[in-house]
Each structure stands twice: as C-alpha cells, then as structure tokens.
Known about the structure:
Two copies of one chain form a homodimer.
Chain A: H1 5-8, H2 12-39, H3 44-49, H4 53-61, E1 69-70, H5 73-85, H6 91-114, H7 126-149, H8 159-169, H9 175-192, H10 194-201, H11 206-214, H12 216-231, H13 233-237, H14 259-290, H15 297-313, E2 320-321, H16 323-331, H17 338-354, H18 363-374, H19 380-389, H20 391-406, H21 409-428, E3 433-438, E4 445-447, E5 459-464, H22 470-486, E6 492-496, H23 505-520, E7 524-528, H24 532-538, H25 542-547, E8 552-553, H26 556-566
Parallel strand pairs in A: 5-6, 6-7, 7-8
Antiparallel strand pairs in A: 1-2, 3-4, 3-5
Helix pairs in contact in A: 2-12, 2-16, 2-17, 2-18, 4-15, 4-17, 5-14, 6-14, 6-15, 7-8, 7-18, 7-19, 7-20, 7-21, 9-12, 9-18, 10-11, 14-15, 14-16, 19-20, 20-21, 22-23
Amino acid sequence: MFLxxxxxxxxKAQLSGDLIAGxxxxxxxxxxxxxxxxxxxxxxxxxxxxxxxxxxxxxxxGSSRTLAVGPVGLMSLMTGATIIxxxxxHVTEMVxxxxxxxxxVGIILLLMRLVRLGxxxxxxxxxxxxxxxxxxxxxIALSQMKHIFGLDIPRGLPAYETFYRTITQAPQSNPIxxxxxxxxxxxxxxxxxxxVGLLKKRGTSEEVVQFISKSGPLIxxxxxxxxxxxxxxxxxxxxxIIGHIPPGLPDIILPSLNPELxxxxxxxxxxxxxxxxxxxxxxxxxxxxQKRQKIDSNKxxxxxxxANIASAIAGGYPVAGGFGRSMVNFSxxxxxxxxxxxxxxxxxxxxxxxxxxxxxxxxxxLGAIIVLAxxxxxxxxxxxxxxxxxxxxxxxxxxxxxxxxxxxxxSGIIAGVLMSIGLYLHRSSQPHxxxxxxxxxxxxxxNINRHTVKTDKEILAIRVDENLYFANTNYxxxxxxxxxxxxxxxxxxxLICSSISFIDTSALESLDDILYRLEKAGIRxxxxxxxxxxxxxxxxxxxxxxxxxxxxxxxxxxxxxxxKTAN
Amino acid sequence: MFLxxxxxxxxKAQLSGDLIAGxxxxxxxxxxxxxxxxxxxxxxxxxxxxxxxxxxxxxxxGSSRTLAVGPVGLMSLMTGATIIxxxxxHVTEMVxxxxxxxxxVGIILLLMRLVRLGxxxxxxxxxxxxxxxxxxxxxIALSQMKHIFGLDIPRGLPAYETFYRTITQAPQSNPIxxxxxxxxxxxxxxxxxxxVGLLKKRGTSEEVVQFISKSGPLIxxxxxxxxxxxxxxxxxxxxxIIGHIPPGLPDIILPSLNPELxxxxxxxxxxxxxxxxxxxxxxxxxxxxQKRQKIDSNKxxxxxxxANIASAIAGGYPVAGGFGRSMVNFSxxxxxxxxxxxxxxxxxxxxxxxxxxxxxxxxxxLGAIIVLAxxxxxxxxxxxxxxxxxxxxxxxxxxxxxxxxxxxxxSGIIAGVLMSIGLYLHRSSQPHxxxxxxxxxxxxxxNINRHTVKTDKEILAIRVDENLYFANTNYxxxxxxxxxxxxxxxxxxxLICSSISFIDTSALESLDDILYRLEKAGIRxxxxxxxxxxxxxxxxxxxxxxxxxxxxxxxxxxxxxxxKTAN
Lengths: 567, 567
C-alpha cells in the first residue's frame, strides 16, 4: 500500500509533539488566513478553505516534515493584484478566478517537476529577492492602512498613490476604527516582544512562551470582536466588520476552465508559482538542515503543486509555505507532517461550527495582524551588507525595490533578474587577468602587482581567473595582444589555466586565433596547469595538435624553467 | 593641425604599396559594389556611391591601416530585407530609406562609442555567428538564382519559398541568361582556383597572381557586357541588364529625417550596426596582429560610424569592412589607409566617366559574382568542430542557422544569443565540485575520482571549480548538505577556493547559511586557498568574523594537517 515514508515509520513518541504543534499552528493560522484573504481581496472563507485540504496534500507529497502550508502574504498580494487586473466586479467571479489561479499554479509546479525546471529559481539572486520582498512588504503594509484608519481607498493602486490618498484622507478617518486598529497593533507588538521578554525573565518554559506569544493574533481578534459586539460599534459607529462567513466545509469542485480567463492568468500564475516555490523551499531547507534532514526539491514541487490543486478544488486560492507558521510548527516540536493534518482538521472544525463567532470581527484588527506580520520582512540589513560588499548587487536590489514600488511586483522581479544576469555576464566578460612572476626561488608564481616577484623579459606569464567562454574571449585576446604589442622583447607567452574549469567552442577558436596571431608575430604560446576535465575535452582538438604537446606543461614552474633553459 | 596619425608619419617608401593596393581594390570593388547593390534591391549607383566618401572618412577616423570599407554581402542582405518590410514601391523612396538607414547605423555606432557599449558584440558567440553567417550565405546565394536562371521571383520571400519557386520555375528559365550566368560562374571559379595554381606553378610572383586572380569579376563583367552588346542579347533574347547608371559623382545631401521612417528602421539599424561592427573589427584585428599592430575598438567605432554617415550623405547605404577586399588590400601591400583614398578616387572616376560602359552588363554576371563571393562563407567546419568538442555549442549554432533560414536574420541572431547565454548560465549554475584527497604523502590534494588519494573520514574536503554567484549558490549548498547528510561521521568541511575569483552577495549569504547549517549539525567549516582579490572583499564581512580567522588556511595541506592534529 502506498503511504508517505513518515507515515510508514510513525512512532507513538512523535504524537504529542505533533498534536501540540498542530494546535498552536491552527491558533495562528485561523486569524492569519482571514487577514491574508482580506489582503487578496477575497472573502475570508476562501482563505480558510485554503487552510484545509492543501495541508493534507502537502503532508502526503511534500518532503519537508515541518513546513506549514497555507495562505501567505506575498502570494495573497500577487493574487489580489492579478485578480484586479481582470477588471471584474462580482465577488463570485473573483473567487472563481482565484480558484483557477490556484489550479494553474499547481499545474505549473507539477510541470516544473516534470521538465526539471525547478532550478530556475536559482536565477533569483538574494539581493533581487530581498528588494522584491521589502518592497512587497511596504505595499502590503500600506494597503492595510485603509482598514486601520477606516478609510475607503480602492485596492490595486500603485503604492505611492495608496500612500498619498491615505495621508490626504487621514482627517476623514473613522476614529473608532482607528482606535481599534491602533490598539490591535499595540497588543500584537506587545505579545511579540515585551511579553516574550517578561515571560522569559520569569523562567517560563520555551514552549509556553512560544504558545502565548503566538496566540497574540487570536487574542486581538477575540478582544476586538467582543468589543465591537458589545458596544455595537459596527452599526452605531460604522466600524467595518467581516460579517457573515458561510458555515460548513468547502465543496470539492473543479474550478471552471475558461480558456480566456486562463490566458489572462497564465503569466502571473507562472510568477506566483515561482515565488511560492522559492519561499517554501527556502523555509523547508533552513528547518531541515537544523535536524540534518534532506529536502528533495522534486518532492517539494510535487507537494506544493498538489497542495495548490487541492486549494483550487476546495475553493481556495494559491498557497505556499509560510515562514512564521512553519517556525511556530518547528519550534513547538512538530515531528512529522501529521501536525499539519491536525491543523487542517482544526481549521475544518472552525469552518464547521465557529464561523458565526467572527461576524463582528473588525477589519482593522485583521489589518493590524497583516502589518505586524510583514513589517519584519522589510530588509535593510541585506541592503547595507550588499552596499558594503558589492555595489553592483546593491544596485540590482534597489532597482528591484523601486520597480516593485513604482510599477508592480512582476516588472520588479523581471527587471531584477535581467539586471543581475546582465551584471554577472558583464563581470565575467572582463575577467581578472594577472601577470605573474616567480616568488623568490620557490616554485610559486604570483601576481606582479601584489607580490615581489622575478620576471623574465622574454616571457610573459599570465593567469586568467575565469572560465573561457564567448563573452570573454575577445577580452583575453585583446589583453594578450596588447601586452605583447607593448613589449616587443617578449618571445614566449605562458597561459596559466589553473582557474579555468571550462573552455567553450568560441574560446577554443579564440585560443587558436591567439596561437596563430602570436606565431605570426614570432611568439610561442604555452599552456600550464590545465585541469583534468578541460584537458579531456581538449585532447582531440586541432588546437592541441597546433600548439604541440611540448608546449603544454603540468606546472608553471616547469614551463618557466624549460623556457629559460631553451633561451 | 589635426591629421590622422598615419598621415603625420607618412613616408615616401609607403607610397608604391598603397598605390598598387588601391588600384587592385578598386578593380575588385566596382563590380562587387554593383552586385551587392543588386542584392540589396537598390540601383547600382547607390552601391557605387557607398564606395567613395565612406572610404575616405574611414581612412581619417578608423584604426585599421588596411581595412577596406564599402558595401558587403551581409549588410546588403539585411538592408534589402529591412527595406522590403517597409512595403514601399517607388525606387526613390527605397533609396531614401537606404540613406536614412545608413545614417542611423552611423549614429548608433557613434553612440556605442560614447556609452562604451562596443563590448556588446562579445555576447555573439562564435557558433552563433557561424550559424548566422552560413544561413545568410545560403539565403544570399539562393536569392541570386533568379538572376542566373533569368526568372522573375519576388525578393524578400523566405529562403525555402525562394528555393521552391526557383526549382519549380526552372523549366521557364531564359536559356541565354542561364548560359551567361553559368559561364560567369565557371569563369569566376577558374580565376579563383585553377588559374592561381597554374600561375604559381609557372613561378609568377605572388603579387601578380593576386592581381590576376582578383580581376576575375572585372573580366566576367567585361566579357559578359561585350557579349550582350554585340549579340543584342538584351533586346532579342530578353537578357536582363543593369541599364542606365546616372553618370557623375554623388550629390552631398542630408537624407530626409522622417520620424515615422526612423521608427520603423531603428530596430534593424541596431542589428545592422552590430553586425557591421563585428565584421569590421574581426577583419581588422586579424590583419593587425599579423604586423603586431593594435586595433583600438573605440576608434574603430568612430571610423565605421563616420563612414556610414558619409555613406548616408553621399547617397549610399550601410557599409562595413569587407573580408575579401581587405585581404586583397593587405596582401597587395597596402601600408596605410592612403590605399583606400586611392580606391575611393578610382571609384569616383568610374562614376564620373565609365558608367555608360556598364549599360549592357547582364544581371546574371553580377549574380554569379555574389554567389562565388558568399559560398565560402558557408561554414561546415565550425559545426563539425563544435559537434565534436561541445554539443551544446553545436546546438546553439543549429538553432541560429535554422531560425535565420526559416524565419529571418534578426530572429536567428536573437534566438542564438539568448540560447548561448542561457546555456552558459545553466552550465555555471551547476559547477564541477570535486571531493579531494591527499596524493601519497605530498602536499597535493586531488579529485578522489581521478586519482588514488587518502581521505580522512571526519573531514570532507571539496573544491568548487567556478566562481560563486547567485545561480550556483543553491547548488553548492545542496551538494554540501547532501554530502554531510550522507556521511554522518563528518565533523569538518574544508572548502578549497583555488578556482574562485569572485563571490557575490548571494553567495556570501549562502556561505553564511552553510556555516550556520553546518554549525547546527555540529560540523565546522574551513576555507583554504582564498585568492587575494576575494580575500580583500571578504575581510570586512560578518561572515569572516563568524567563521573565525582560525578556520581560514592558506593551503589545503595546512588545513588538513592542523585538523588531523586537533582530532
């Protein structure tokens, strides 16, 4: 019988950890889901449905034991933006689009598994991701201000426009809403930081601290809901509330496959799939390594793909692994994906019987939950670090950041990726080329600009610190030709290949060309320290015949000694 | 006074070489120009105008002493294709478009000089260029078949369509035209190969052989023109002839600057500028190195840019350095750009007084000249070499080749460039990572899969043969984590950095991550053989503080010895 590995080897001792972790995650997940649903512009039940079946499917097919799947901030933002682009008004149509989007995301992830394209996320460099995440966090936080201020600002505006309207309309805020929002923010912040310090000082056990701290959102939700309910703040003071959530578990139904809709959603679905996968696998990896477990990126694609398809048919929207929740799960002692199954059941239970309790839940409290969840994502540290370490990386980061803020998430990511690839190619197209000389009477040869070394006026010994490929062969050729043109006494060029792991066809032709041009000028070319795999490929080439085996040396010192003797 | 360097230092002894070379090039250039003009779908005088002023401007601003500028095959093909896309019927409008195109190409080249973007041609790999040139040569040769067969096939069809129509309409050929065409082909071929052999056998001096061999096109032109004239082949047998060429030198006039036209021409102008620059600089470099002279790529951009602007205002179309002509110039003994000025004057003289002589020149003879000029460009050798040396390069080449043939030149180049960059990134994203061990009792450490070496079960020593950057950091991280997960006895990981010339911000964070993850698993990380420039950048990072100076070793042997002692 087919069962996931963790289920086959399940031990009783794992149960208590899984149970506790499953319950704590559910406590975090219910209010967070509703908040993210609001961020995506979808009814709260859609987000709650996303927190049921997908968790079970990921438990069956994913490779991380502790990743907590469900609605997450970035994907909610991107889903919201995607749906707004469709220009539809009816909520039911928006919900259908969200289901279809989740289905597409799931299918794309499975296809990525099939054609082994998971590695494509490697082309998102850390600075680009950081710039994108920081800007998205700002956009998300800004988008919640209207809920906290009680303002009526349309969704989907550019970030600066949202900011401007929030500022200019602030005087028309709903004061009661603003009080609830501010109070929720303070409460959440207090649970997150001062309370943790207090409890730790008192010597409360780590697990209890975790539990209490993570229940902040639930307490904010409960407190603000009760306040609204007892003081009639909704009807008498116009405080926006969640309202009716249809009770009961989701229907299992395949979303409509409207080709026109699919065509519109596809480009964004691709990006959402990539970002979701990137987020999930990063979290999964960082947790797995702490227990010296492995994450199989292929299984991860299947787990996340099936989870999204499950979300689609359970009436949800795109899901991924969430950082905060996964950490809660991990540190609360989850031993296996069974904890996620428990979470899913508890969310299901909530849907079945508890939805009436959320009727008076003010949107301001949910806005505050989102703001507190995304603020830590604004990452100044990476910018500082990149600025100090590598200015071009800092530049890619800023470009991504501002493009996301000023234009949109998609353009920002694309600009960042293109820029980092372009900068990398530019860098590798002008490799570091060192002229080297002998250190004392040793067999070591080092850069003449960094060390006191001896050189021979007839011999030019250079080391190229980069693989040779089409983009840098001209640079190498030009550098060598310039060096020999500048120094007419040179009769030998020794090319040290210790850093060259790969020579492509263009570079091979270029070497042939260099050989020919040097020969025409009466100069002999020699190669030293060619790596094994490079030599294997060179062995049958015409170039090797032309240069002659006698001009290939194992070490630079051998080459230099034999050339000096010959002179 | 401002004078080019070569003029300031001109010596009498250089004159005879320049004179002879200048005359020979003119002999080659006049018929070739008219043929290329026909290829571009432009009247012959436009191509002849392109062979006057541009040569003088290049002599003044270019950096090659022997590059022969003028109309060339590739650019004529691309110019023709560009003009056809405009859907204009009147020849005068087509000619205006050609002038504007030359002006844009010239301005683009000067702008490339200004913003130092000349290096962009480095991203055209040899296989991509070879695939593009071969396919273009086939398109050009096919396009001339109608002239040789005397058929009426429209220009600008896809290559397969031209081929198909030529084959199916072959029975309706004009037999006299076909005879002239075939005879011209044979004559040109005979001058190119058997005659050279004969003359060399007889001991004729190299220069005379050159001169006689290169006059083939002129003789084919003269012979076929006289035949048509004396036998009235044009009026009585329908042989297509060049007809009236307006006599006299070109008017110097700025081409119209119609914004609509410029918008349409711009994308192609960009590509034509790149290809023209690429072709010119390759030829210039290969000649310069034989005399140990330098080519300044910046001056080259200025030379070619002003030459194209000159072509625009002298009533011509885009120009570049031609391979065949430049070789003729070089081997006929040209010492300086003065030879080009002589060529320009002779073409001017031809325009002034000799144009009536070309009235009866049959187009079939010009078609034959083009076919013989482009056939050697079909490059099977590079494909064979790439196929044997590096299959992925061969693949890029074939993609470029077929895209050019089936779609068009522009798409082919773009597909080829994207593909070669993609393949390179893919390659560098999965670097060669070797586990190394000690060779005997030496200080050398080598790949355990290639050499008989000793390893320590507690120490994992690995060498990464690639710079660390965003696209391969995950791969490195995964490889290390997999290796330590597979072997629970490992307590130390030694990362040998001898092939790493560059660590970007993503890779730095990834190293930090690896350090953290290894530490969590109770494993210590050590680095050895870090290069000078890499260490310079690492010095102030948090990562270096975290890993600890004591875990950075100069050599792998030092690291291994000290770790063994510690154990």
